[in-house]
Amino acid sequence: MTEFSDKVVLITGGSRGIGKAIAELFINENATVIVTYRNSIDNEYFNSKNIFHFKCDVADMKSVQEVTDGILKDHSKIDVLVNNAGITKDGLLMRMSEEDWDAVLDTNLKGVFNMTKAVSRSMMSKRYGKIINITSIVGITGNAGQSNYVASKAGVIGFTKSVAKELASRNININAVAPGFIETEMTDKLPEEVRKNYMNAIPLKRFGKGEDIAKTVRFLASDDSGYITGQTICVDGGIVMQ
Ligand code: NAP
User: Fold this and answer.
1) How far is the CA of 185 from the centre of ligand 1 (A)?
2) Does 229 reside within a domain?
3) End-to-end distance of the chain based on CA atoms, in angstroms?
4) Is residue 3 domain-resident?
5) Domain count along the chain
6) Which CATH number goes with the domain that contains 120?
7) CB within 10 Å: which end of the chain, N or C, has fewer?
8) H/E element holding 11?
9) 186 touches ligand 1 (CB under 6 Å)
10) What is residue 78's three-state secondary structure?
């Protein structure tokens, strides 16, 4: 038995990267784990008895409503929602297309709105819920070449604070985790020069791993963090010190 044995944990974008590390941690905690993805999933890995997976584009409210209704029908509750799904489409403002702006905002910010709205009604009626939004340190600092991504992640931080105020009376905590440089497919595609610059700026002198984020998510999903809401915790080796 663990604190999460009777908990239903829903993780968006859980097919790889940080989302997969979060899913693995909660599988080991014996939670009922539900992951969503957009394109494909490695069936072999997700072939354990307490894990379920659904194709669901978080940017599409209809798809989100269908999937969350189905989960609530089958499992009767969602205790923990981790809004992790995210994409980048980088470029300097002058070269950024409207399509790239919309795609990033639709997944990273509207996706968080869609999922949170779809899940919070049930949490409100149960008087229990933990929502954890994965933002980014660049949502705090800004970053040249990422105005769409930064706007979406800064939006998530503001969204988290506002919804924390709305849902606190229903015993729902909503917080954000801001990763720094975490080794995943998203960061694999960055040029060596950018990786080197990041490493120089990291006081702890290592890139983060998915597990570093997963452990912080676990804390925010646990009752140990019951008096924390509306906050953004940086997990970044010390790059951003607020
Ligand atoms: P990743 O390896 O690229 O994985 C992204 C995940 O999101 C995949 O499972 C992908 O599904 C899913 N996804 C993308 N668009 C989706 C959509 N519209 N609907 C549903 N699922 C969607 O990314 P990551 O590095 O693990 O990043 C995870 C989160 O952490 C993101 O929000 C990212 O912005 C944030 N973050 C990452 C870093 C970092 O250093 N890696 C730093 C700061 C913040 P498919 O596989 O099906 O496409």
Assistant:
1) 9
2) yes
3) 37
4) no
5) 1
6) 3.40.50.720
7) N
8) strand 8-11
9) yes
10) coil
Pair of tokens at residue 62: 């209809």
Burial code (b: 16+ CB inside 10 Å, e: under 16) for 3-39 equals ebeebbbbbbbbbbbbbbbbbbbbbebebbbbbbbbe
pLDDT for the residue 185 = 86
Q: Please state the pTM of the whole predicted model.
A: 0.97
In this predicted structure, the answer to whether residue 195 has a pLDDT above a threshold of 70 is yes
Percent of the chain topping pLDDT 70:
98
Quote the tokens at residue 130: 């933990």
Quick: pLDDT tens for 111-140.
999 999 999 999 999 999 999 999 999 999
Q: Which domain holds residue 122?
A: 8-234
Binding site membership of 86 for ligand 1 (Cβ less than 6 Å): yes
Q: Judge whether 75 lies within some domain.
A: yes
Rounded to 5 degrees, φ, ψ at 99 are: -60, -45
One-letter amino acid of 170: R
Residue whose structure tokens are 């933990």: 130
